[in-house]
Amino acid sequence: DAKTTQPTSMDCAEGRAANLPCNHSTISGNEYVYWYRQIHSQGPQYIIHGLKNNETNEMASLIITEDRKSSTLILPHATLRDTAVYYCIVRAQGGSEKLVFGKGTKLTVNP
Amino acid sequence: ETGVTQTPRHLVMGMTNKKSLKCEQHLGHNAMYWYKQSAKKPLELMFVYNFKEQTENNSVPSRFSPECPNSSHLFLHLHTLQPEDSALYLCASSQAAADYNEQFFGPGTRLTVL
Hints:
The complex is a heterodimer.
Chain A: E1 9-13, E2 18-23, E3 31-38, E4 45-50, E5 55-56, E6 61-64, E7 70-75, E8 84-92, E9 105-110
Parallel strand pairs in A: 1-9
Antiparallel strand pairs in A: 2-7, 3-4, 3-8, 5-6, 6-7, 8-9
Chain B: E1 4-7, E2 10-13, E3 18-25, E4 31-37, E5 44-50, E6 53-57, E7 64-70, E8 73-79, E9 87-94, E10 104-105, E11 109-113
């Protein structure tokens, strides 16, 4: 079972920031927060991950609350090509636990 | 070619046919995975291979038979499938089997069983 809760769907205007929330209230101290996305009819794509500090890369920023019970993925300037299902996953790094994809958030970027 | 490639991208087969899906990774990874994604359902892990050895079979029916001849290639042999096996089959790879986190996925094979 997925350990995260995400909204089923969200909309965002092209060029604006897309903020995707994720609740993971039962996260353990050694578990990281990972984000993947899946564009329609393609394989999932790794986006970013973090433990407790905020992280940023060329694709997105990840903001993790101080209590680590929730996080937000930020796409600073959403484009139409960012329309996809976004998955928030928590698990320990390097462990043998399966990567469990939940239902994710369907983000639609509108022109 | 870079990344993870899968062939064919689309496959239609009858229930009595035998076909194979192919996956190849050009990333120098040592672990490869097969996933199944049915319509409106989360991704389901099917098999895990680490250094050519199968390390996980997630209760997959025997009509799905994986083969990993080397760390770069992974096959999924299909025989006597059922219509409910129609799905997107995704291959992924990672540096090692412990790295479930940072997996790189192929584009998938869209399978339709008639």
